[in-house]
Specification:
The chain is 38% helix and 15% strand. Helix 15 runs parallel beside helix 17. The longest helix is centred in the last third of the chain and has 18 residues, at 372-389. The radius of gyration is 23 Å and the shape is globular. The termini are far apart. It is α/β, with parallel strands linked by helices. Strands 8-7-13-9-10 form a five-stranded mixed β-sheet, with no helix packed on it. Strands 3-2-1-4 form a four-stranded parallel β-sheet, with helices on both faces. The protein has three domains: 22-234, NADH-ubiquinone oxidoreductase 51kDa subunit (Rossmann fold); 242-347, Roll (Ubiquitin-like (UB roll)), CATH 3.10.20; 352-439, de novo design (two linked rop proteins) (Up-down Bundle), CATH 1.20.1440. Flavin mononucleotide binds next to strand 4 and helix 17.
Length: 463
């Protein structure tokens, strides 16, 4: 029996007759949670968000309530800003755009509540440059919400003012990193800032306290206000509360986006019960569970995790790839991460050298160039992988690749360093024989089963 989706954020998305117009949103109870929030005190809403256990849906999974708690409205002499991170550039991730394209008012309502809770009067939605239609939809939704007094001066009959502006990026992945985003919003080159001292909550936009949250995170706020933090915390599993929008791509019969309670299903259930199994009845080879920067998980590997028994006690367990529950803590315990919710499935016909080479091209292109290990290292990794892929590998390339990656991770200004090193570190170690075969000039080890031809990874660049 397939596990049922729990559609909280995507409740109305893709429902027949549901549109982006404010009248439709109001018909479905829209902006009621804002009105309820406005009867509460801001700190009480922050307290509810803390109780809810909501963790950020943008990548790091940081506690939303704790992040908000860093801002003390009473101590601030400067204005506080809210930024919605709608850059969504992590390969394999395509959930935020669904919300923006299909339910923009849900995001605006969540943002208006977040503004009120944190004494913010000016907020921005930083949207990825390629989402041209998304930006237009948001502009229209903001105009509609202003016309109905849910945004602008004196929202919903109160004396509280909230303005939200859409700011379009120019299509750079690094603009998704919160401090790079802030630099870009200030009109500068998006060089991430060094932390400390430039934590957004302290020295953010215009050197003022700033909250940066992901689209899905902010949508959750209205649901927390609606049901209360304690009820929200009952969804999902302890420390991994609420629902999560999962984006599945790659070698499954039915890719797409789905919403489940966090940890309610395993990787195997997602692939087999929800996505119709591996394409063409082939075998599972590997899964990247949290966007392309997450470490790859290999079929056949065993992972030691902590699991809660029905009596509440914790036991140590060893499980396989398909038995991993999709929650933040378990995926971290496997050495990978839940990241952005982008789950990339690879079957037995995938050549891991080609796959990693494809990922490396992306990261080499997107490095902002500020730190030497990342700027130079990402390019070296791309070049080494390119020559391995095209039959020009050197015998010591496998060790060299690993060495370059090890010298990037942990040695850079922002977490892009890890984002480009982790795929290399994990692919090269877990699929060592495939990389060594190429390095020694023995070509691909790709299994050919039932006469199937290898499924080639599309080429995006030549060197
Ligand atoms: C290289 C890099 C790219 C990122 N891209 C995104 C992105 O596209 N969208 C996003 O919400 N967060 C992205 N993040 C995470 C943000 O820096 C930040 O942690 C997040 O927006 C905070 O929101 P949350 O707490 O609601 O998850 C990225 C981080 C890094 C290091
Ligand atoms: S790690 Fe890479 S992307 Fe981040 S600041 Fe350094 S060079 Fe730029």
């Amino acid at each position: 029996m397939p596990i049922a989706e729990k559609r909280l954020i995507s409740e109305h998305i893709d429902q027949p007759g549901y549109t982006v117009d404010i009248d439709c949103y109001l018909k479905y109870g829209g902006y009621r949670d804002l009105q309820k929030a406005l009867t509460m005190k801001g700190p009480d809403i922050v307290a509810e968000v803390k109780v809810s256990g909501l963790r950020g849906r943008g990548g790091a999974g940081f506690s939303c309530g704790m992040k908000w708690g860093f801002i003390d409205p009473k101590k601030n002499t400067k204005p506080v800003y809210l930024i919605c991170n709608a850059d969504e550039s992590e390969p394999g991730t395509f959930k935020d755009r669904q919300i923006i394209y299909k339910d923009p008012h849900q995001l605006l309502e969540g943002m208006a509540i977040a503004c009120y809770a944190n004494n913010v009067h000016l907020a921005y939605i930083y949207i990825r440059g390629e989402f041209v239609l998304g930006a237009k939809i948001l502009e229209k939704a903001i105009a509609e919400a202003k016309a109905r007094r849910f945004l602008g001066k004196g929202i919903a009959g109160t004396k509280y003012d909230v303005e939200i502006y859409v700011h379009r990026g120019a299509g750079a992945y690094i603009c998704g990193e919160e401090t790079g985003l802030i630099e870009s919003l200030e009109g500068k080159r998006p060089y991430p800032r060094i932390k400390p001292p430039y934590f957004p909550a302290v020295l953010g936009l215009y050197m003022s306290p700033t909250i940066v949250n992901n689209v899905e995170t902010l949508c959750n706020i209205k649901h927390i206000v609606a049901m209360g933090g304690a009820a929200f915390a009952k969804l999902g599993t302890p420390n991994n509360t609420g629902t999560r929008m999962l984006c599945v791509s790659g070698d499954v019969e039915k890719p797409g986006y789905f919403e489940f309670e966090v940890g309610a299903l395993t990787i195997g259930q997602l692939i087999n019960d929800v996505c119709g199994g591996i394409k063409g009845g082939r075998q599972l080879k590997a899964v990247i569970p949290g966007g392309s920067s997450a470490k790859v998980l290999k079929a056949g590997e065993r992972y030691k995790i902590k699991s809660k028994k029905p009596d509440g006690t914790i036991e140590d367990k060893e499980i396989g790839l398909e038995d991993i529950p999709l929650d933040f803590d378990t995926l971290a315990a496997t050495g990978s991460m839940a990241g952005s919710g982008g789950i990339i499935v690879m079957d037995e016909t995938r050549d891991m050298v080609e796959c990693l080479s494809n990922i490396a091209v992306f990261y080499a292109h997107e490095s902002c160039g500020q730190c030497t290990p990342c700027r130079e290292g990402s390019l070296w990794m791309k070049k080494i992988l390119h020559r391995l892929e095209h039959g020009r590998g050197h015998p010591d390339d496998v060790g060299l690749l690993k060495n370059v990656a090890d010298n990037i991770a942990g040695k850079t200004i922002c977490a892009f360093g890890e984002a480009c090193a982790w795929p290399v570190q994990s692919f090269v170690v877990k699929f060592k024989n495939e990389f060594e075969s190429r390095a020694l000039g023995n070509g691909s080890l790709l299994p050919k089963k039932n006469g199937l031809l290898p499924v080639a990874t599309p080429k995006t660049e030549t060197v």
